[in-house]
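Kindly go through the entry underneath: sequence plus fold tokens. Please state briefly how this chain folds according to its tokens.
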Amino acid sequence: MLPPFAMIPFQNPPLETLRQLVVPPQTLAVVGLSPNPARPSHGVARAMQRFGFHIIPVRPGVGQVLGERAYRRLEEVQEPVDIVVVFRAPEQIGPVVDACIARNDRCLWLQDGVVNVDEAERAQAAGIMVVMDRCIWRDYVQWRT
């Protein structure tokens, strides 16, 4: 039994909830989407686009990625987004959470290796579903049919 002061580790939503998030295809704002085809963010976003997802690149310094207009910041995206997918270092998640809260986004998906429990809990406290340290492409491939 855990002592009363012990922290319960962050838990992702149940797998069935995650499956329902990504099937059928949705609109994804991909924060940190690289124009470099060798980068994981590019490969994942390209694959999701080929599966029928609408990709909104969020990447300063580029005009377009994967044939879609790129935005410098998430706050500039005017259209509704189903899932905000993040390819950023864990210490850079705070501003993304701020933007998701301000935009009233419903889901924040932090890709493999992106772990920031404090920011994930802050997003959850604002009513945002958070998925952390999972690959949206890998999950989608497993669940689609």
